[in-house]
Specification:
about 0% strand, globular, mainly alpha, 13 helices, MetI-like fold, two-stranded antiparallel sheet, 2 strands
Length: about 300
């Protein structure tokens, strides 16, 4: 039996130590806080699963705040996906495939992705103001009373339009990469068969983009579900609590009220929801890859 060389573990060990320091230790600290209660002076008392029971009880104050924020998050993510995925596909189909226009288009599409999140929030905080902002002033000029500071509907429209402007490019670039991977022979066969533009999209382009679309949906759902900086900078979670998502609610508990136990419990449940969604998407993507491999083998 050939001996196994274990020296490679010494090369991996520094990475494992860094991961343990930056991820595992903070996570265990959060778990520790979630089962305890603090009364100041760094004194902690065992509370067990009390915070989790209160968090999952919709009749409690903590539970009602949690479920309200959760539904806002889910609604926001659903709206974002319903807009950005079709729009990203449409933009990708409209992008040039050859010539100098390709490089110029890719650079222009990547520009919104290079802007930091807090800067995006600051830009739209000014851009959407009704007195000095171009967007807000233009909407008010149409006779529409637009004020994202006082109107919850206007606040939602603002953060949705802001997110679409910021992240549709990511979906478009992923879809464009999927389109570029389609062999030219597929289009030649479609032209010979006299396929319409819709038939080409439905039978060639969309199936070939299915994997990158799953990745795009996963990335956009995860990012929109964890959104914090942009709505916090623009609306601060208001007006009222209309744009208070789970991330903002978590910060309010941890820093605003200094309820470390409640905030830790919310953080863990928040993390478990994200992990569950990741598992669902991973299962779907694995099943899609398996079906594609089976179809390729039959072909």
């Amino acid at each position: 039996m050939k001996p196994v060389d274990q020296k490679a573990w010494f090369l991996v060990l520094p990475v494992l130590l860094i991961v343990a320091f930056s991820a595992v230790i903070p996570l265990m600290t959060v778990v520790n806080y979630s089962v305890q209660d603090s009364f100041g002076n760094n004194q902690f008392f065992w509370n067990g699963v009390g915070w989790f029971a209160e968090l999952l009880d919709p009749k409690s104050d903590l539970g009602s705040r949690f479920y309200d924020s959760l539904w806002r998050n889910l609604a926001f993510s659903a709206i974002i996906l319903a807009i950005e995925i079709p729009l990203g596909i449409l933009v990708a189909l409209s992008m040039p495939r050859q010539g100098w226009q390709v490089s110029a288009t890719l650079v222009l599409m990547a520009l919104p992705l290079l802007i930091p999140w807090n800067v995006v929030g600051t830009i739209w905080q000014i851009f959407a103001r009704g007195d000095i902002g171009l967007f807000g002033a233009a909407v008010n000029a149409l006779g529409i009373d637009y004020n994202y500071v006082a109107n919850p509907v206007a606040a939602w429209i603002t953060i949705i339009v802001m997110d679409v402007w910021h992240w549709t490019s990511l979906v478009a670039l992923l879809c464009y990469a999927g389109l570029k991977s389609i062999p030219a022979a597929y289009y030649q066969a479609a032209r010979i068969d006299g396929a319409s533009r819709w038939a080409v999209f439905r039978t060639i382009q969309l199936p070939k983009m299915s994997r990158v679309l799953l990745i795009a949906v996963l990335l956009r759902f995860m990012d929109s579900f964890m959104i914090y900086t942009e709505p916090f900078v623009v609306t601060g979670g208001g007006p009222g609590n209309s744009t208070t998502f789970l991330s903002i609610e978590l910060v309010k508990l941890a820093l605003g009220q200094f309820d470390l136990g409640k905030a830790a419990a919310l953080s863990i449940v928040y993390n478990l929801i994200i992990l569950a969604v990741c598992w669902v998407f991973y299962t779907v993507m694995t099943a899609a890859d398996a079906r594609a491999d089976i179809d390729a083998g039959r072909g």
